Amino acid sequence: MSYRPNLLLKNVKPVGADFDGSKQVDIRIADGTIVEIGTELEAGDSEETFDAEGAYLSGGWMDMHVHLREPGYEHKETIKTGCAAAAFGGFTEVACMPNTNPAIDSRDVVEFITKRAEELPVNVHPIGCVSKERAGKAIAEMSDMKEGGAVAFSDDGDPVYNAQLMRVALEYSSMLEMPIINHEEDLKLSRPGHMHEGRVSARLGIDGTPGIAEETMIARDILLAEFTGGHIHVAHISTAKAVELVRRAKADGINVTTEVCPHHFDLTDEEIERRDFDTNVKMHPPLRTQEDVDAMIEGLADGTIDAICTDHAPHAIEEKEVEFIYAPNGIIGLETAWSVSVRQLLEPGVLELTDLLDKFVKYPREILNLDVPQIKEGAEANLTLFNTDEKWTFAESVVKSKSNNSPYLGNEMTGRAEAIYNNGQFVVNEV
């Protein structure tokens, strides 16, 4: 990591706005601002030059659903290590969930997080709690947290289970023009599930969580959003019927958006049997069926699913190295999200490059009411340099997260983020 406020990026192919990735240009950055876009630009005395050799350049990517664990669980991840993982994955901005200790349920915790991240090349946007201490009993100080820098509200890790509390939260969200992000789970239907309930769980003899546990809560929240006019954002959607519920709600003009994780449009519950109960394929929502995976891909293709997120959830090695049913849910995902998306969405032609980038750049920020970075003269330089064809291995030696609980560890990947530029810092990734 280094500060390079004056930088000449040579031979980049911008994608976005007036650029479609076909034209190769040079971009001059001075004091963190794009000052010139042209061809055959020459570096000045105070400038460093980086030859991108034809790599693509887009606005910086954003992950709107990560767990940075700080404060309280620094043995899993810290804001600094989580942002290092984000930078390696091509993300210049992340929004962090509030299931910390203390929870992000007050302005002082919001400001603590933004203060800890202010010198980093990755912007961190805290998501405040819906309820105090995430206990589901009383509304948190939402307006005060917004003033402190919160960009949304969620009790993620747990659903907002009380319908009246969710109604009030959505009414506040309407007034504050901020989304409520709900972990959609009917606890009476889901517990004590450790994987998707279906043919594989029956064969393995493991208690499962049925898809309807997610779907009934989504249906409730859609109706409450329609009733209140608030904005409900469905976190980490995972079932085919859930996608159809969101599709119908959008058609009806209800203010609902959603996101999906790469593992949910890539892996199925068959992985648990194939990998002999590897706890790195245990997450929540659980891996579902191939039908559900196909529905995620279809939802991304037709625009029902707005954004791609990772639900980056680090766990210490001793927490995951236990029997499957005792392991915590969650995997890290920041460093592999682009490669999985290339393989599953770009290479098969499900999405064109510009449409895939919208899921990483445009829509997460629009949902959170944040400025979308632009590639134009006079704009703040918030950029991701990437390719779509480089072969590389996701080895332990390249993991930047403090944890390595990933089902993709050791896999050959295709496409990666080569560098990011943000906050006057240029971070070049090595593999």
From TrEMBL:
Domain Dihydroorotase catalytic: 59-240
Catalytic activity line of the entry: (S)-dihydroorotate + H2O = N-carbamoyl-L-aspartate + H(+)
Catalytic residue positions: 311
Regions that span the bilayer: none
Cofactor notes: Binds 2 Zn(2+) ions per subunit.
Cofactors named for this entry: Zn(2+)
Top EC class for this record: hydrolase
Positions of substrate binding: 67-69, 99, 315
EC number, UniProt record: 3.5.2.3
Binding positions for Zn(2+) 2 per the UniProt entry: 156, 183, 236
CDD domains: DHOase_IIa
Pathway of action: Pyrimidine metabolism; UMP biosynthesis via de novo pathway; (S)-dihydroorotate from bicarbonate: step 3/3
Binding-site residues, Zn(2+) 1: 65, 67, 156, 311
Source domain of life: Bacteria
Alphabetized UniProt keyword annotations: Hydrolase, Metal-binding, Pyrimidine biosynthesis, Zinc
Matching Gene3D superfamilies: Metal-dependent hydrolases, Urease, subunit C, domain 1
Function field: Catalyzes the reversible cyclization of carbamoyl aspartate to dihydroorotate.
Protein family membership: Belongs to the metallo-dependent hydrolases superfamily. DHOase family. Class I DHOase subfamily.
PANTHER family the record matches: ALLANTOINASE (PTHR43668:SF2)
Protein name: Dihydroorotase
Record organism: Fodinibius salsisoli
